[in-house]
Fold these 2 entries.
Entry 1:
Amino acid sequence: MSAEELLPGGWVAEVARVGDTVRRTPPANAGYVAELLRHLERVGCRVAPAYLGVDEQGRQVLGYLDGRVPWRDREDPAYFSDGALAGVARLVRALHDACAGTPLAGDAETVCHRDLSPKNTVYRDAGQGPLPVAFLDWDLAGPGRRVEDVAFVCWHWAELGPGADPHELARRCRLVRDAYGPLPGADELLDVMLTQVDGTWRGIAEGAERDVPGMRRLRAAGAVEAIRGWHAWLRAHHGALTTLLTP
Ligand SMILES: Nc1ncnc2c1ncn2[C@@H]1O[C@H](COP(=O)(O)OP(=O)(O)O)[C@@H](O)[C@H]1O
Ligand SMILES: [Mg+2]
């Protein structure tokens, strides 16, 4: 067997590379994720690593995706360019279209990834700057509404908090919305974002209190205070943002 190399950039799972594969701590919903990744491969929706089964240690085995994951905060502005952000929105659209109406979506509109962020996105540079090619970390995927992932992208690829510019956030949200295409519930984008940002800091704080290791690490890195600050900023600019985002 080839040597194992631990991959940096994760907060929750332990991830090792072994040759052309990646071995991860299995997610709680391992069976669902396996079905989802198999479905995406079967229908030719190349937005995720290949699912390759379970190894002798019970770890999830995925195909290794070449490229770069910008897991350090804002490590290079090129990963946050308008072109790259539009590419993210198109990948999300492809995911949602590939899952809408399938048993994986159940009664919901489609399947949502629910953890879309630069740290979970593989980029490749074919000469025009890094562009997104796939998403990692499908542990939280499940049935949901399209607007949920779109809103999640809008705040994870944004700069929020003190000093942020509401006009720039609104411009980036519009760019995501335009690149995604027709979006049911688009008028709710801002409120969905607010609910998600609020739920995120509370979830980390509660998880840390319950001693969940990943959540403790996030809290120790200042995530609760930072995200709580983003929520306060979004609320403070809610009126202006609503106007800026109204079609
Ligand atoms: N299939 C893959 N191909 C390439 N790199 C990967 C792959 N899966 C994970 N990684 C790397 O490992 C890091 C952590 O993996 P991730 O699945 O996001 O775990 P966590 O749940 O800990 O965030 C990613 O940021 C990425 O750099
Ligand atoms: Mg991750």
Entry 2:
Amino acid sequence: MSLSGGAPAARELAKAGKKVLMVEKGDYHKKFLGLPFGIRLLERYMLFARSREGVIIERGITVGGSSMVYQSNVMDPPVKLINNMGVDFRPEAKQLKKEIGIEVLPEKFYRNNKGLYRMLATADKMGIPFREQEKFVHADKCKLGCDWCMLGCPENARWTTREHVEEAKSYGAELIFNAPVNKILFNAGKTKAINAEQMFKANVGITEKIIAASNKISELRQIINLSSQAASRPSVNNIPVKEDEPGAPVTCYGKSKLSAEEAIKQKCKKYYTIIRPCSIYGCGDKDFLQLFKLVNRGLSFQIGRKDKLLNMIYVSELCRFIELCVNNPSAYYQTFFATDGQVYKQSDILSAIAKALNKHPLKITVPESFAKAVFYGGDLYGHLFHKEVVVNKEKMKEILADAWLADISKARNILGWQPIANLENNIKDTAKCYRALGWL
Ligand SMILES: Cc1cc2nc3c(=O)[nH]c(=O)nc-3n(C[C@H](O)[C@H](O)[C@H](O)COP(=O)(O)OP(=O)(O)OC[C@H]3O[C@@H](n4cnc5c(N)ncnc54)[C@H](O)[C@@H]3O)c2cc1C
């Protein structure tokens, strides 16, 4: 969103080369006949937006958010707030102040203010230090006696986050306005972590925060959560698992995703839909990239003698699946597995990659006992050096499971899901994309 807090985040992400879309409920209001923006920026025109206690609660509904109507006073983040949040953002605040060029207004702005002088004298008597207020104002542009700040500065004398919105755009971010957000799709899916606590903090903690915030937004209708097949369990005797079977995750990641699902079911007051995709592959995915890299180097590994079975879904197919859930009352309060409906052998995937890369890799079957030693070694390395590693005990449990098969009949019946599977072509496109990105 192009809000006061959102715009700096959008700018930083766009600057770092990320694809950013800023979505704003309000308009990109412009001055009219030289007049300030006025009350049309404010939610419910200042008349009815009151708290239960009667305090006017206002915010600017426009590109730039409340920074378009604020009073421009600058306060350093109080220690109490920092402690409560558990995030010390003082260095960032300092940097931002320097970047914006915070100023105090020159004396001419308050020279004739008798009330202020009386306050100063009283404060002095009481021994309270009274300092000039720092402002997000370019004092040279500020007009003496204007006082329109809170209805939008007519002189453009204040810093507003529109500057960050524009900067984000210059780095390639997109802005759409008059576009209220009423659905949220989120993942909260940290797949590697140093320990279980970190994994739960990310996957469950973020989910809980999103739910708590969403519950308070009246216009928000639907939450779609991308969970994971890992929240269920591997299949026994190659029988696909159904959504209503109790989850029995084998990894800490799976457990955290299941806990996140439970948090949604218990706490979400909006319509929610939980999607459990199986292994996702396609442009931008970094997990399958490792397999592509190995095959590209002429190697192809299979762990154990058994050619294990699994489901897959191509990223654009998953997008189609999500679209079926959006605004669909049949999808409300439901959990769905999402796969392309095919059962693949590991060797099918490796062959498709080899074909796409035009390679004839050396096929090596690694005994399970040796693989286990490698996974344990990776785990130990991660613990010793406090690093998130891909090769770890958790991954081992996932890889060594007999099969990961999910039943999608529920999605077929309720959503009308008709997957279009084309592993070979999709793997070819994925390889093309990896090459274009310079990853291969
Ligand atoms: C009159 C006034 C005076 C103030 N004076 C000061 C001051 O002097 N100093 C100071 O530090 N702070 C001041 N503030 C507070 C400061 O402006 C806010 O703390 C700050 O702007 C909050 O930033 P934010 O990003 O959290 O929210 P906001 O700036 O309110 O941004 C929220 C954005 O989200 C958009 N939005 C909301 N719902 C949706 C939706 N469903 N879909 C899409 N977009 C949506 C809104 O339109 C808005 O652009 C003042 C605020 C007001 C209202």
